[in-house]
Amino acid sequence: MNLRKILQRFLVPPIIVTGIYYLKYKCKVSPRAEVELSPYLKIGENSEIGSFTKIKATAGLLEIGHDVSIATSCFISAETGGVEIGDYCMISPNVSIVGNGYKYDQLDVPICQQSKVSKGIKLGKNVWLGAGVVVLDGAEIGDGAIISPNAVVSGRIPGNVIAQGDPAKVIFKRR
User: Fold this and answer.
1) What SS3 string covers 90-129?
2) Does the first or last residue of the chain, that is N or C, have fewer Cβ atoms within 10 Å of its Cβ?
3) pLDDT (tens digit, 9 = 90+) per residue, 29-86?
4) Would the pLDDT of 1 be above 70?
5) Is the dihedral of CA 2, 85, 35, 75 positive or negative?
6) What kind and span of H or E run contains 10?
């Protein structure tokens, strides 16, 4: 980590970060949220980020659409594959969106020492993620989908469906 990032992370007061994002994007970031000042982070107008939420975009693009609501205690991390969150999404409390993983194919090498992989994550427009949902690298959720609480999404979920479980599976088609 370079000196500039260390100074930003530890010496810039959270209220200043809130002000910067409001002036730059017209969005509301709670002063109790931990949002990195990063050129890779883009937040749409009228979006809200709740308290105790952590957003990291150090190595890849993280695009949050307009009118997105991110509740308290969420974690969103973008790596080289990027994370895209469409307009009008609702992200409930304690949701984790993790944009990377590790290779684990070499049995003689500890997993933490194997290389990272990042395929990217895409959430369509008007997606609702229930409380405690985990979205893993490589996931794609279509427009209008609803993901039930505590589901784990690791693959593709089509649009206008309700999905639940670990791994998340479609249980109902919205009409």
Assistant:
1) EECCCCEEECCEECCCCCCCCHHHCCEECCCEEECCCCEE
2) C
3) 999 999 988 899 999 999 999 999 999 998 899 999 999 999 999 999 999 999 999 9
4) no
5) negative
6) helix 3-11
Q: Please report, for the chain, how many H helices and E strands are present, in that order.
A: 2, 22
- Which residue intervals of 26-165 are DSSP H helices? none
Residue ranges and CATH numbers for the domains of the chain are 3-173 (2.160.10.10)
Give pLDDT, residue 92.
98
Q: Does the predicted model carry a pTM greater than 0.85?
A: yes
Q: By 3-state DSSP, what share of the chain in percent is helix, strand and coil, each rounded to 5?
A: 15, 30, 55
Nearest to 140 by CA among 114, 168, 113, 101: 168
Cβ atoms of 129 and 90 closer than 8 Å: yes
Least confident interval from 88-92, 109-113, 154-158: 109-113
Spatial separation of the C-alpha atoms in residues 103 and 15, rounded to whole Å: 38
